[in-house]
Structures are given as C-alpha cells and as structure tokens.
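Section 3.1: Structural characterization of target chains.
Under the original work plan, the team committed to producing a structural model for every single-chain target entering the pipeline before any wet-lab resources were allocated. The record below documents one such target. The sequence was received from the expression subgroup and is listed exactly as submitted; it comprises 448 residues.
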Amino acid sequence: MTSAPLSSDEPVAFRGAFLDFVADPFHQPEDDCVRYLRDGLLVVVDGKIQAFGTYGSLQGAYGELPITDYRDRLIVPGFIDTHIHYPQTEMIAAYGEQLLTWLEQYTFPVESKFADKDYASKIAHIFLDELLRNGTTTALVLATVHPESVDAFLEASEQRGLRMIAGKVMMDRNAPESVRDTAESSYQQTKALIEKWHGRGRLSYAVTPRFAPTSTPQQLAYAGRLLQEFPGVYLHTHLSENENEVAWVQELFPDCAGYLDVYEQAGLVTNRSVFAHGVQLTEEEFNRLAEQGSTIAHCPTSNLFLGSGLFNLVKAKENNIPVGIATDVGGGTGFSLLQTLSEAYKVAQLRQNNLSSFQALFLATLGGAQALHLSDSLGNFGPGKDADFVVLNRQPTPLLKLRNSSDLPTNLQELADQTFALMMLGDDRAVAATYILGKLAHSTDSRL
C-alpha cells in the first residue's frame, strides 16, 4: 500500500516501543547513546514531532488524541541511504563483472534511456516505492547525465513529500556518447538544476561528477566552481572503490598525489562532500578526509558483489570521519538497509572487527543524518524534527518468529539481541509501515 503524505494541523499520536539514538555508539558507551521506550508516545503536528516520551508521562496531556497503536511493534527513525543510483534499478543483479567492465557492459547502456523524461519518471516512481517498502525515507541519489532524469526524480519525490538529495551526473570522457556531456554543458545544466531544485521544499541538490576517470580536469574545476557559487549544495561522487580504478586514476592524473588529491586540486573535498566506497584509501587519504570533515558512504553489498574489497569502518570512525550506510543499487544487491547492515557486519568480521546492532542502526538513522548535515531535522525523535519513521515487525517470518520472543524487550541487552537478529534475518518483510511527515506512505499491516 502506498499513499502520498498530506499535511495537517491536526495533532496525531503513535503508541509503541521506540528506539533511537542520542549520541554515537562508536565513540561513547552504548547505554549512553541508545534511547529505548518500551511504551512510548510520539505526538505529531503538521509533519513535525511535537512531543516524545513515555506513554505514562504524556498521557495526561495527549491521551485524548487519535492514537495509532503499535504496541507490539518497534518504531525507529526513517532509514537514510547515503549513496544510491536510481537509474540502475532495472539492472540490479547484473551478472559477472567487476566495476569498470560492469559499468561499460550494463550501466551505461541502461542510463542512456534516461534522456526520455517519461521513462525516467516511470523508473523514479518504482524506485521510490522500493525505498518506502524497505523503510528508507531519505537518500542521496545519483541521476544520469541527462537533466530530464533529475527533473523526473525530484518531481516524483516532491509529490510524495520526501526529503531527498539528488544530482545530474557529470561525465565528459571515457563513456559512450549517449551518456556524455561536456565540461561547459555540465556546468550550465547543473547550475540551472540547482537554481530550480535546491532548497525547494524538502529537496536538496548534489553536484555529481560520476568519478574522476569520466571527468576531465576542466569538468572537475567547473564542479568546484559550482560549490563556491552555491555553498549550500553537496558534492557527491565515488572514491577508491576498486584497485584497477585507482590505478587508472593515477594514469589519467599523473600530476596528482593519489585519487583523493584529484578531487582536492579541483576544490571538491569539503565538509559537504560525500564520497562513496573508500575501500582502497591510503592512510594519508583517511587523514585528509578527517581534516576536511568529508563523509564516506559505506557500501558493503556493492563492494562484495563487485569484488571491490572490505571497507575499514573502524579506521574511518577512529579518525572521526562521518560515515553513512548505503545500498549503492544497482551495484548493491537490494534496497533493504537491514540487509545492507547484515553485510556490513560480515565485512567487519572479515576485518576481525565487530559491529553491534546499535552501531549499525545508528549508521542508518542518526549517523546518516549527521553525515548528510540533516541531524537538525532527521535522525531521531527529537521534538521539532520531521516525523519520518519506520514501524518494524520483529517477527515477520517463521524463522524470526522462532528467533525473537513475542514479548517486547525489557532492557537494552534483550533489545540488542532482538535487533541483531532482525538485522541479520530481516528484509522488506520486517517493514510493517513507513511514515513520511507523520502520514502513512507504505504499509503491509492489515490493521491499517
């Protein structure tokens, strides 16, 4: 079931078990970071959170409101995907190649279709349906080189009241003509799209050179110029995903001291820059990202599927680099951030590290909001924030029904155990409902 959110001044309330985060569990004891209300109440007015607390403490003030009862469910903030390609929805699970061949064989031919705005709009709505079905309420999204692909995606997002960030890919070399622009046209088209969309409602824009090999130095310089002209926009690109890619960058930019330096020389490494992958980063590059406050989008399913390698999450967090979690569809193999967190756990294990369920869920909620500079409006249930949230069924399958007790957790240890099982075994079936601005946007719950 899907529906577009409607604004309303009438207050509504939701009762259930709530889990969110008030601090970073990678840096502080988890007990100080996790907020769990076994019987909580969330009050929403005109899409914003007006009050949040235990049902007992708020019953007197809000007990007469219409209450949606989710007392057998776990309610969490909406999931945030920090790197995903909407045009690759139809080519997800394309067989048998690593990054550079995969782009040439599958990705570029599919992306060439997005010059047709009607086609782009069709895929955009399918894509957004998939996000909502999986509990993702905000994403940082790549379109294609065609301006029509950005218009189609942001129009579809605006219709649904979603908070989304997107940008036109910039590529002026090393790609087929059907998905190439020029340095000048990419600048002019991106500038027009920023002026049209950035800051419009809940939408933001990201300047999006695809990755260094498909941009000339002139195009990268134009991207840096756009960041100076529009300081509120994001920079979104790929970085150090694949060993062959890193070697290719060195050949294309022999005067640069590594992959990150290509972007630095163009003025693209800032505290509003989001770099996907970072699997092959050097020690110096980790340090530079930390100094600049840039974000890394961790894409475990994609890195495993394309054989790119194992991201060093511990090193990134030790360097205080903001990290978000990302599906990276279509290199990634699904829209579910629960499944993506499962793969992140396995990547950590292969690096002889641990990733707790609380750390993982932090990455998908408040951590993602912080990484995208959206924590003033998203990420937890703080009053005044946007009421984007997900209702999770802890027992959506026979196996999880066996694994997780029907009783709600009574303490953080039990909560950690149940959420870990949900993270390892859950998928879109665990998403009972998704709310945007306090309005139902997707549901599989027969009671609604």
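The longest helix spans residues 117-133.
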